[in-house]
Design goal:
The chain has 186 residues and is α+β, with helices and mostly antiparallel strands. It contains 6 helices and 10 strands. The strands form 2 sheets. It has an 8-stranded antiparallel β-sheet with strand order 1-4-10-9-8-5-7-6. A two-stranded antiparallel ribbon has the order 2-3.
Length: 186
């Protein structure tokens, strides 16, 4: 599968339809830029780009992990140990927020690598402009689809999941095109 780019400014639509709820996400609704990237970008080598996207598009950062067993408890404890930089507003959900200035993303990527990288679970890291409403969602099973239902709150989103696949969604910011070119070369 090849990397695909969808630029809402050019009318290129990226759609996701949730299998369970049948809810639909389209990047055109909020004018979002999307990279559907099976294994082409090494995100762990482009953390500065992720940090810039979050700080340029969002008021706060967020992080969701759906760890796969075995090792779930140890992985979650490593994340809870970052309690100075992350806060878990929704205790029944593995949804954390962080101040964009604190930049815990480098530490989260280290934890992810320690627990198997792409084999450790589904990871979502991004920026938002207000808290997500989790009412009605399954506890400890918050997904990208759930977050995308509240696309008006998203500044950016990076989903990392099995087999080195990823999905990146962002609002374009001043300088975005140049930053994107730099990571595409890496």
């Amino acid at each position: 599968m090849t990397m695909k780019i969808f630029d809402a400014e050019k009318g290129e639509e990226f759609k996701l339809i949730d299998q369970e709820s049948k809810n639909e996400f389209s990047n055109l609704k909020q004018n979002l830029f999307v990279i559907d990237d099976p294994e082409k970008i090494l995100w762990e080598e482009n953390i500065d780009f992720i940090l810039k996207c979050i700080s340029a598009t969002s008021v706060k950062g967020y992080f969701i992990v759906t760890p796969w067993v075995p090792g779930r408890d140890a992985l979650m404890q490593s994340i809870y140990d970052l309690n100075e930089k992350l806060w878990n507003k929704e205790k029944d959900y593995d949804l954390f927020y962080f101040d964009v200035k604190d930049e815990p993303i480098k530490e989260l990527f280290k934890i992810r690598e320690k627990f198997g990288g792409y084999n450790s679970g589904e990871w979502v890291i991004g920026g938002c402009n207000s808290y997500f409403n989790v009412e009605g969602f399954k506890k400890n099973e918050l997904t990208t689809s759930d977050i995308l239902l509240q696309d008006e709150k998203i500044g950016c989103l990076l989903e990392l999941y099995e087999m080195h696949q990823s999905l990146f969604i962002t609002i374009k910011y001043a300088g975005f095109e140049g930053d994107l070119k730099r990571i595409m070369k890496s």
